[in-house]
Amino acid sequence: MSDEVSQLELGANDYITKPLAFEELLARVRVPLRPAGQPTVHALGAGGRRLDLLTKVAWRAGRRIDLSPREWAILNSVPATQPRRPRAAAGRGLRALRVGVPLPDDVKAAARDGELPDHFERELMSGGEGVALYVCAYVPAGISEDRWAQVRELVVDQVLRLNVGLQTMRRCVRALAYLASWCLDQHVPVDVEHVLDPDTVERYCAEGLSGTEAAVSRVRGDLRRLGRTLTATAPWEPLPVPLARTKLSPPYSRAELLVIERDIVRQATPLRRTTAQAMWLLGLGAGLDGRWNTKVKGTAVSRVGDVVVVAVPDPVARLVVVRAAYATALLELAAEVGEGLLVGARKVSKNSPSELAAGITIDGVRLEFSPARLRSTWLVAHLEAGTQLPVLLRAAGMRTYGSLGDLLGSVRPLADDKARAQLAGA
């Protein structure tokens, strides 16, 4: 004791003798590094959980949980911003303490008063470091302490590689924990390549899982995603490459429409003139392309009140109101053909739409006559006119809005004053 007193009197900040514990030495070294005024808190605890902030060890129900350096680094990176409006609620802060892992300074301070900063709850629910807190504190209820100690490092290290939200992480950490535990009984090496091998996963789902078919299917799906994401050599088949969505054809410009309208009546034969006129009117007037334009009969066009409508056959049978600029001409053509097809052909086949369109010569074959481009021109005309999207989708026989994005660049923007008036009048 005299040596300790004398050394402290001579100016030493601290004095320690051998034998010593390395954890104690680190704790004493951190003392002078602590910012002035910081409260001295060595442990946190609640509900049977306890965390030693000096030794970085958590305890739960008397069971020790050693945190790896990686876990500690992740948990200590939680942002320590000041809460704007801490919500005072008894036990809310203690709920965070129950995970049994280190918390940021502002969270520790607020938790002692029964409060929890808003940002910490948002972190826990939205992902990021809050998800890491959950993973490092996770203890499966159905796995013994000894068994969990054998697989915990694998489970925690692997799921922390995922970039998912809290709800998905809960499913993944549970699925991998119980799979790894089952692998111990099957004498499967506890490493990620063997545990998440396709054969291992399928055997586990067939032999080691109990529950409803839907529950087993859900776990199988989670483990398959984990296998493809976390393994490097396990023979997982790659997911099929999704087919690229076919983009809508570009609409015709005003100049191109004038050329097409001029050359329709210049076709070499009466049949081609009829075909060109029918495809022109059905495309620009009702938005029908090769899926429908060769199936419409003259009797399918009629006047209902003040508008002209076309009864469109399958696929996606519906009534389409014809644009006023093309209504009269379409009615006249329908009266001429009567029971026959508007395109004039007596018989059509699967390839008829493209073959008929290819036979129409526009501007000396310099401009392609395309029913798909006529349909896109019809869609753009409705977008510019302000037709409600649900109404337009029904008329076009479309299920989703996504493909309309292909045409937005062709929609003429409103003048600033009209755009403001439209927004104000909504």
Overview in brief:
It is built from 19 helices and 9 strands. The protein is of the alpha+beta class.
Instruction: List segments where confidence is low: pLDDT < 50 over at least 5 consecutive residues.
Output: 75-104, 106-128
Mean pLDDT: 80
Helix count equals 19
Terminal CA distance:
84 Å
SS elements, strand count: 9
What oligomerization state is this entry in? single chain
The rough form would be described as elongated
Q: Beta-sheet strand percentage?
A: 5-15%
Under the CATH scheme, the architecture of the largest domain is: Orthogonal Bundle
Radius of gyration computed on alpha carbons:
36 Å
Q: Fraction of residues in helices?
A: 40-55%
Count of individual domains? 4
What CATH calls the topology of the largest domain is: hpI Integrase, Chain A
The CATH class of the largest domain is identified as Mainly Alpha
Describe this structure in words.
The protein has helices spanning 2-9, 22-30, 69-76, 92-97, 105-111, 118-126, 129-137, 145-159, 166-185, 192-195, 198-208, 213-230, 254-264, 270-286, 324-337, 352-358, 371-385, 389-396, 416-424; strands at residues 43-46, 49-52, 57-60, 63-66, 87-88, 115-116, 301-304, 307-312, 318-321. With 426 residues, it is of the alpha+beta class. The protein has four domains: 1-33, no CATH class; 42-135, no CATH class; 145-230, no CATH class; 254-424, Intergrase catalytic core (hpI Integrase, Chain A, Orthogonal Bundle), CATH 1.10.443. Strand 1 and strand 2 form a beta hairpin. Helix 8 packs across helix 9 (166-185), helix 14 packs antiparallel against helix 15 (324-337) and helix 14 packs parallel to helix 17 (371-385). The longest helix has 20 residues, at 166-185.
